[in-house]
Amino acid sequence: MIITAAIIAIGVFIKEFKSGDNLDTLNLEWIIHQLLFQLSFAAIMEEPLFRGFLWGYLKKYKLRDISICIIQALLFWFGHIYYMDTGLNFWIWHPIAAFLFGLIIVKTKNIAYSLGAHALVNTVAQIFMFYYKVL
């Protein structure tokens, strides 16, 4: 199911941005496709790594959840160093989002919630980047 969603999301993403026609007006279809794309790629790859494997590894060392939350947020932020030239996006929003994704794990003990939040945050960021030319 994830692979199918990924294939559909790639196709839609390429079609939408290749034509450029749909960038003039914000539409629900584009938002849904963007959310599927984000769920299929960034969130599905990054959440298991940072809030799954890394979290579990650090837990073995008897670190408190808040310490793990800070460490994973810093590593997540560093993992997005290629956004360094995007100003507030890199210096403010990435570390805040990473920390909040960690807090979701602390509260829910379930990576599915942080995965959904990650996809939603990325989708909102895409809306601001492509429609409002910010971030």
Automatic annotation (TrEMBL):
Gene Ontology molecular function: endopeptidase activity
Record keywords, A-Z: Membrane, Transmembrane, Transmembrane helix
Q: Name one Pfam family in it.
A: Rce1-like
> Which segments constitute the CAAX prenyl protease 2/Lysostaphin resistance protein A-like domain?
30-124
Cross-referenced InterPro entries: Rce1/LyrA-like_dom
Q: Where are the transmembrane segments?
A: 66-84, 90-106, 113-132
Q: Name one GO biological process term.
A: CAAX-box protein maturation
Q: What is this protein called?
A: CAAX prenyl protease 2/Lysostaphin resistance protein A-like domain-containing protein
Q: Which organism is it from?
A: bioreactor metagenome
